[in-house]
Write a structure and sequence with these properties.
- The protein has a two-stranded antiparallel ribbon with strand order 1-5.
- The chain is mostly helical.
- Helix content is 46%, strand content 4%.
- The chain is globular and about 65 Å long.
- 52% of the residues are buried.
- Helix 17 packs parallel to helix 19 and helix 19 runs antiparallel to helix 20.
Amino acid sequence: MKTNILNKYTLVLLVTVILGTSCTKDFKDINTNPVAYGPTSFDPNFTLTSAQLTYTGSIDFAYDTWRGNLIYSATMMQGLSTVISYWAGDKYLLNEGYTAAYWGNGSVGAYIEQVRPIVDVVEYSKGKPKFNNVYQVARIWKALIFERLTDLYGDVPYSEAGLGVYTGNLTPKYDKQQAIYMDLLKEVEEASNGLNETGDAVTGDVIYKGNIAQWKRFANTLMLRLAMRLTKIDENTAKTYVQKVVGKTMNDNKDNAFVMHDVAGSRVTQNRNSQVLLGDGGQENYYVKWSKTFIDFLKNNNDPRLEKVAVTKLYLTEGGKTQNPSYVTDPAVQKGMPNGKDLSGIAGRDVRQDPSFTDFSDYSSPNPGMIKQNGVTFILTYAESEFLLAEAAQRWGIGVAADHYKLGLRSAITFLGQYDPTLAITEDVALNYANAHPYNAANGLEMINNQYWAHTNTMLDFYETWSNWRRSGFPALTPVVYPGNATNGTIPRRFPYPVEEGAKNGVNYKEASAAVPGGDKLTGRVWWDKQ
């Protein structure tokens, strides 16, 4: 057993070095003698780096990002639109390989690339005072990982997941989502309280570079998001945990959590959204556009973000990979592509017969500053925190809803400069816009969650867009109607379990599949998504 663990940590370290070459000052020393690291000398900081980087997408050509975040979540939520036939989410079609992509298959996916390394960090650093802060950060990051997994699929392997090398159990049970959420809240709260600003340095941290005060605020913001996920199903627990984090969440956009990518490792460390939207694997650069729903929302509200996030004339030819340097940012000409269209030539379906169509280059694309290979992937933001606090205030009188809403809107506008200086919007512009669009309690929940939708769209975190839409019901999206869709024309509510789980984890998979409310399909529901 000792030999197996030694071999495992050696392999983990080698993978971590590959992933974290730009993030680790000790790369040279470690790389010269990796075999010297084993159970007694292993530094979990390096594996923490791996878990942070892989949360932004699979190392295998953005496999999960392409399918889970963009093909499905982005188009179902009408943030993006496309006529590419294999983008199944735009038409509510079921591609079982794509809906399984985030979970993982073969050698990639969240359970392999995220869960395994973060469980290793937690298990190795547990009970070791010299790694106390590493342990607490790892617990927080593990909660972040499992929040997304359970939000996408429902009941999932949690308490026994990633522990096979320690326990020998390679068929982990599926924990109930309710139990998972209760444990995530407990873990994040304990980890936040356990962080020590005078304790050990977290040197493998690519998010906050070991800033413990920021990790405390991140943890409390994550706890807020976890708690608010329960508003439909367990309002008392939601309210209790929100009250615990008041005054402890993110302070401003400087606390925004994101990974700054580079291209030194090619497809390993570059921005995963970039790999797809720049057309690295197909014609996504030419045929994937902002949705008409999203562009109309910004346009109808004279939103200053429109001229920053959207451009036309970015790619002028279908096969071209070179961006037109004279792309157009004028908000007056921005135009979103309608969802649920194709290139079939059939009336009512072919986008070229839509009244909005003139040329594909006239539909709005994401600004190049948002999808640079060396750009950023946003994880959690101050604006999200303020919008959620605004909703808590509206629901339960915890704070002043109008104040939190205004702060959320301002920060959702000004944060864009963190993508690229050319996208920056001044505080004065944001403040003037917020003053011109004040909070109205009469339709407060709709206002808050419409802005949450707009913000997470601009974060390109469509997983979160989808989760919050399922929780809140806003915005009131009009489903597309496409022949042969798998949902009877309703917007999907969850991803089905991977079919291959039936062979790998048969009994547990069968029980979990049978227990899904509404069935193990796109129209089934996770526990917190109550009718």
